[in-house]
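Friendly challenge for the regulars: who can give me the C-alpha cells for this chain first? No prize, just bragging rights.
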Amino acid sequence: MKLDQIALIIVVAMAVAWLVVFAGGMMQIMPYGFIVLIPLALFLWIVVRIVQQRLKNKEDDYYHKNIDK
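First reply, four minutes later:
Bragging rights claimed.
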C-alpha cells in the first residue's frame, strides 16, 4: 500500500470521527440537534457519490496512466 493511500485513510478516519463527535455535540447542545444531521447526511452522501464516480471512471484512469507522464 502506498504512503499516499495510508495518509488518505488516516485523514478520512479522522474526518469521520470528527463528524461523529460534532453530531453528538449538536444533539446535546440543542434540543433539536438532529436537524443538523440532515445536511450532514446529505454532505456525506455527495462525498461518497463523488468518490464512487471517480473510482469507476475508466477514462480518467487511462489518462492518468498513459497520457499524464
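The chain is about 85% helix and 0% strand. The helical segments are 3-29, 37-56, 58-67. Your move, everyone else.
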